[in-house]
Description:
heterodimer, A: about 220 residues, mainly alpha, Cytochrome Bc1 Complex, Chain D, domain 2, two-stranded antiparallel sheet, 7 helices, 5 strands, B: about 425 residues, alpha+beta, Sulfite Oxidase, Chain A, domain 2, Immunoglobulin-like, five-stranded mixed β-sheet, five-stranded antiparallel β-sheet, about 15% helix, about 30% strand
Amino acid sequence: MLGLAKQKKAGLLIIGFMLAQLSFSQVFAEQRPFNLGLVATAKQVAGWDIDVRPDGLGAPIGAGNAISGEEVYTDRCASCHGDFGEAVDNWPALVGGEGTLSSHDPVKTTGSYWPYASTMYDYIYRAMPFGEAQSLTHDETYQIVAYLLNMSDIIDAEYELNHSNIGKIEMPNHGGFLMPDPRPDAQPIFGNPCMKDCDVPTQIKGRARDIDVTPESES
Amino acid sequence: MAKKHDRTLSLSRRSLLGGATALGAASVLSSAGADEVNPDNLPPNVPEWTPYLGPGVDANPYGMPSEFESHVVRRNVEWLTASAESSVNFTPLHELDGIVTPNGLCFERHHGGVPEVNPTDFRLMINGLVDRQLIFTLDDLRRFPQTNRFYFLECAANGGMEWRGAQLNGCQYTFGMVHNVQYAGVRLSDICQEVGVNPRAKWVLAEGGDSAGMTRSIPIEKILDDCIVAYAMNGEALRPEQGYPARLVVPGWEGNMWVKWVRRLEFGDMPYMAREETSKYTDLLKDGKARMFTWVMEAKSVVTSPCPEKAINNKGVQLLKGIAWSGRGKIRRVDVSLDAGRNWRTAELHGPVLDKSLVRFTMPFEWNGEEMFIQSRAIDETGYIQPTIQALQAERGVNSIYHNNAIATWMVNKDGSVDNVRLG
């Protein structure tokens, strides 16, 4: 509703600017309030518009399967994420964790948690390998995604992942997300909160000092 | 306690402490870098800095804080992340006054390090469902009408290590992923007019030019309401680590959406489901389901002194200081308890009390060597009351990581040292 009001206001402003401009700026093919910026060419947009949506919109032409993906993955990903996506050191695990989301120690991986395969393509192409962003080819990216999906038993090893089916892969945790935001949700008190002799827990259950994980020196 | 304080000090300062006693060390610390007192500098003597000339106006073209303030720095927690390039550090809230965070102390959160963007080569591309796909230079952005607004920016994971219990013993580490600066920039509603938004456009993908290519989907209503493409903070150009030369400002909403080094805004008819809004920044509940698109940062407050880094040094009158903020608007009131939440007093709010901005509060109190349990509770203009951790856990469990805005408890020990504790 807020947006609508603003949109209406914006609309009136546009009309206002247009009227003001009509008398002296007929030379402009387009009526813009500020006449700032240059029109982006299709080639310019194509170079930067790298996102891939859940429905597959934006997926670049290319293809790959898990068999070819194993080699690319081993070469470009395994040093941080492990040969089987199990993770090295503190780097994220990419495979495993199924059935852990409601446990004490949930493991959120592409297989156990990510709701869309398109996100895997989008993220790997734009940001991976860490420190070598946008260095993978489109085929390599499809290959890596296929390899990860295969390790999570989502597709067969021979399945050819490509631009026309990346938006159709059904991820195991696709239904695991809740919208819209239900907050405020933790408001047991309404109106004026207690100010005097309130019934609250006062036993010390833990001290950060005892956990002893606070940094010990400047890093 | 002296040991703990010691650990957060620089080597040079630690060596100054020498054989100070526990309470003595704390007092040296909180007097902001003072060494042991030199009687030669005290009345009736003439202090050593008085007879001689100091540096001239050509000594420091860009001024820095006093060397006695060298402990007032951002700090990180090394074990938290795999690399410093995709990590976070924390604002030293306990060392600050007022509501303005100095630019050099604004916490950092990067996903691929800080890119060095040449402003001459900076471009902001607008594409997708618009009448005109345009590319703006930084100079173009500076020619648009300007807006100047204070806003807090808080990481959704601020306090994320404290869901299960008191874990990090410091105000800086448990609350320091928030800062508050005055932004100058262009209203996105103006940019929207310039490109002509197609009525089918419901979402905007904001994309960074960093090595992580940070992306988030933002609903068009928010974009048109109050979002800004900012090029300045606290009067000067954005700092590199805060998105130089331009970043998105998304008032009241989680910091991850405030895309830095912004290079592109794409208008579309559905959310893009980027990695940062699916695998991250979703809030896992007890039953294994996760909340998605939880954007608003709910009302929160913290006592910044006393706190684990700010021990009480002397008996008698004390000044309690803190900050409060709400992503839903203005802070209406802050209450403070010294007895674990049994009894509360309303603190003094110091103006200006701005929309979606930090507000400063203070409250005088007496301390005479007894144990104390200090808490603060913010109430915003919507009537929302900052919750207890028990209330949050009852609704969400302990695996959410994000959006912990619970009341914290600082325990003042009998020696004046202060601990982060969990009550239950």
